[in-house]
Write the structure tokens for this entry.
Amino acid sequence: MEAIYIKNANQLITVSGASQAPKKGRQMSELGIIENGGLVLRDGVIAFVGPREEAERYIDSLSVEPFVLDATGKIVTPGLVDPHTHVVFAGSREQEWEKRLQGASYMEILQQGGGILFTTKQTRAASEEQLFEESKKRLDRFLLYGVTTLEAKSGYGLTVEDELKQLRVARQLDQRHPVDVVSTFMGAHAVPIEYQSDPEAYVSLVIDVMLPKVAQEGLAEFCDVFCEKGVFTVEQSERILEAGKKAGLKPKIHADEIVPFGGAELAAWVGAVSADHLLKASDQGIQEMTKAGVIAVLLPGTAFFLKEEAAKARKMIEAGLAVALSTDRNPGSSPTESLPLIMNLACVNMRMSPAEVLVAATINAAHAIGRAEQVGSLEKGKKADVVLFDAPNYAYLQYNFGVNLVDTVIKNGQVVVKGGTLCV
Ligand code: IZC
Ligand code: ZN
């Protein structure tokens, strides 16, 4: 495999030094920028990162002539990581959005059999091939926005077979698409229509049948629950996450999105890797998460799209929590693949700094999906996942909002986006 040498970057942003533990508090402002730096990629991994003269000495020692990428006027960052998506689904929900614009709420729509349950109908009806093709389009778009690794949840099947189908499609995407896909089982996303009169029976199905099958087939690394008033109670969520742990799936939780519900506290209690949303998380819950080392995955695009007040990121960072950011890509509350737009919203609506936001969408996001040893920073030995943004500095990236500044994306050492265009 050939080597790539990236030189002349305005800023070579490594986000280094946090592969063992996520960046917290003040560390979230440290980007590890190398002035006048050089980056060498070889055999799909980062072979050298450091001062330009040393990079060139390293290249001289190689037997191959590297392909040179001139990053003049641009910034170079790690490939972005999205730690929370529902990207594998069929159809879309723009009709529901129109209803919400007229005043209906997300929960009302779900309670009337729409929302997640509408997408479930469409996803059940789709073949694996259809599901693959629809989801692949979204992964292409993620790549165009600089995302090289993402997490994908099931939860639109809600039967044993349809949950497995969704997870098999996620695995296919991981194998056949450049973007790395990390799978989460989320059979507890909603109580399906056929179990509405007996939600406990559905919880039993998740625990006794779905979880063992998913674990047995090695189809997911994480287990997630929509712990929310009217969906799954704290007690049900705890049972599901504990059963997941026993089956070898690490816990994650949709916590305190719509109403304060004790989700953050539960995340700390079960030792979740991350608690996500947290719009209505209590002070107590934030404190307990800090003590337990739970990562807060914040989704300001969802708050924006639901016209809710965003999570209290400042309070969380000041409390010493590690914060990560995600699109929450899903057809109901966050239909976008633009992680850079989410990063802008994190600055404007949660008062995170441009530096914190970049940490949150790279190394901290990698920690939230157990991939920090492979991705999330530009460090020797890690995957050669790199983005060149057409921005003179990192703050410009969030400041020039709503446009795509991605110029080049390299995944596993291969150029997959060039001049803002997909080339795979
Ligand atoms: O399809 O509405 N919040 N799950 C929890 C979602 C949003 C996805 C959806
Ligand atoms: Zn979600």
